[in-house]
Amino acid sequence: MEDKPAFVRTLANALVNQLASNGLSAEVSCEPIPGTRMYRFYVVSDGFAEMMNSERQSLVWRIVDQALQPADAIKISMILTLTHDELGESQASAEAV
């Protein structure tokens, strides 16, 4: 993530650290949205398995609010919160299309 903007590195670190402090080991990756200054984030943790999607989203967006200024937070197009199994299923579906 060295070549990514500072806010991307800041958020990735905050997500990993804050989720860890809540007992969730997570991997964070992101990709730029072509033609924009926005980024899509993927947060993958098997600890999400027992959580509803709304709980996952609430948790990660609270971290965004703590870690970033609003001017940087609006550069996030979406944050996908997945388990490793869900990530595998979504990749298989995408490849089938």
Describe the structure.
The chain has helices at about 5-20, 55-65, 70-75, 85-95; strands at about 25-30, 40-45, 75-80. By secondary structure, it is α+β, with helices and mostly antiparallel strands. It has one domain (about 5-95): BolA-like (GMP Synthetase, Chain A, domain 3). It has a 3-stranded mixed β-sheet with strand order 1-2-3. Helix 1 crosses helix 2. The longest helix has 16 residues, at about 5-20. About 20% of the residues are buried.
Question: What is this entry, summarized?
Answer:
The protein is an alpha+beta fold. The protein has helices at 6-21, 53-67, 70-73, 84-96, and strands at residues 27-32, 39-44, 76-82.
State the major sheet: 3 strands, mixed
- Count of helical regions: 4
Structural class, by secondary structure, is: alpha+beta
For this structure, what is the CATH homologous superfamily?
BolA-like
CATH architecture: 2-Layer Sandwich
The strand line-up of the biggest sheet is 1-2-3
Q: What is the alpha-carbon Rg in Å?
A: 13 Å
CATH class: Alpha Beta
Which helices and strands appear, and what pairs or packs with what?
Blueprint: H1 6-21, E1 27-32, E2 39-44, H2 53-67, H3 70-73, E3 76-82, H4 84-96
Parallel strand pairs: 2-3
Antiparallel strand pairs: 1-2
Helix pairs in contact: 1-2
Which characteristics define this entry?
97 residues; GMP Synthetase, Chain A, domain 3
